[in-house]
Amino acid sequence: MAKERLRQMPGARKPEVTRRLPLGSLRVFVAVAELRSFTLAADSLGVSVSAASMQLRSLEQYLGVQLFRRQGRLVEPTADALQLLPRIRDGLAGLQQAIEEARSARGGGSLYISALPSFIMQWLGPRLIEFESLHPQILLRVEALSLMVDFHTSDHHAAIRFGASGDWPGVHADKLLDEWLVPVCRPDLLKKLGPVRSPDDLTRYRLLHSTTEPWSSWLSGQPGNRWPEAGTGFDDSATVVRLACSGLGLALARWSLIGEELRRGELALASDRITPFARRYYFVCPPKARSIRKLVTFRDWLLAQARAYPRPPSSPAGPKPAALAGDSISSGQGLATK
C-alpha cells in the first residue's frame, strides 16, 4: 500500500534509486578528480587511502566505466570521468545547499562571516564567546579576509566591511561602528616622554602605524594609501597595537582596536586629540539573506555589541596642529585592507 501511494505522488521516484545512489563514492570521485591524488583526497575527506580506493572501485563497478588511469602515484581522470565531474560536483553542491537551507530555516547550522583580520583579533574575537553561549545551535565560521568577499562566488552569508560609506552595490548594509584615530603607548613610556600636544612632540617617540593610516591621517581624518615617510609602517593594524603594548613606541591606532588594552591599563591615550576617521564599519549581506534566521540573530547581537562599545573621550576645542614635516596630508578614499 505504501509503495502504491508513493507511485501515485507527482514526481515520485522509486525508493531503489535513492537507496542505491553511492553518495560516499561520489564525494571520493570529486576529490580525487580535483586533487589528482588518492592520498590528498583521502586526507581532505578524513578517510584512509584504502577506504577511498575501495569507494572508487565500487563506483567504477556501479557505472561500468573506468574513471582513472593509475601510474604509480599519478592519477589521471579518463574522458568519461571528465565528462561526469562537473555534473556530479554541481549535484553534490546543490544537495549541500538544500541541506544548509533546511537547517537555516530552523535557525541553526553554519553561518559564514568574513571581516578584516585586525578587527577579528582585537574586537570581534573576544566577544564571540558570549554569542556562542547564547546561541550554541549556530555554528559560526569566521574568515579573516583583507579583501571584500564576493557573495556571488563564495559561501559567505555576511561580512563586516570597513569603508567611507555603506553604499556598496548589491548588498544591504547596517552601520556598525564609527571610527577614530588616537595616539597610544604604554603608560610607563608616556610618563617618561610626556603627552603629545603638537606634531613637534612626536619627535620624542619612535612612531608606529599601519601603512593605510599614516600619522597625517591623525591630523586630517582622511586615510592614506601609501607607505608614509614618518615613523615605521606595518601592514597589519593589530600588529601595531601589539607592538605598542610591548613598549616599542607610540602607535597611531584605531579606537575600535584598543578598547581592551585601555581597559586593562596596557595602553594609555598619549594625546587629547581624538580624530574622527573617514572610514567606519558596516555589517553587509545580500538582500535575500536578510530573511535567514541565524543571520538575523547574529546581526542583532552584533549591533547590540556595537551600541555598548564606548566612544572615545571628546577632544577639547582648539586649533588643529600643522601637518608633519615632510608628510603631506592624503585624501584617498580607498577601502582599508588590514
Detailed description of the structure:
- The protein is of the alpha/beta class and 338 residues long.
- 41% of the residues lie in helices and 18% in strands.
- It has helices at 2-8, 15-20, 23-35, 38-45, 49-63, 79-105, 117-134, 187-193, 215-220, 237-245, 259-263, 293-308, and strands at residues 68-71, 74-77, 109-115, 138-144, 158-163, 172-177, 180-185, 207-210, 232-234, 250-254, 268-269, 275-276, 280-285.
- The strands form three sheets. Strands 7, 8, 9, 10, 11 and 12 form a six-stranded mixed β-sheet that branches. Strands 4-3-5-13-6 form a five-stranded mixed β-sheet. Strands 1-2 form a two-stranded antiparallel sheet.
- The chain starts with a helix and ends in a 30-residue tail after the last helix.
- Residues 1-18 and 315-338 have low confidence and may be disordered.
**Strand element count:** 13
Protein structure class:
alpha/beta
Give the radius of gyration: 27 Å
Question: What is the arithmetic mean of pLDDT?
Answer: 80
The stretches of 5 or more residues where confidence is low (pLDDT under 50) are: 1-18, 315-338
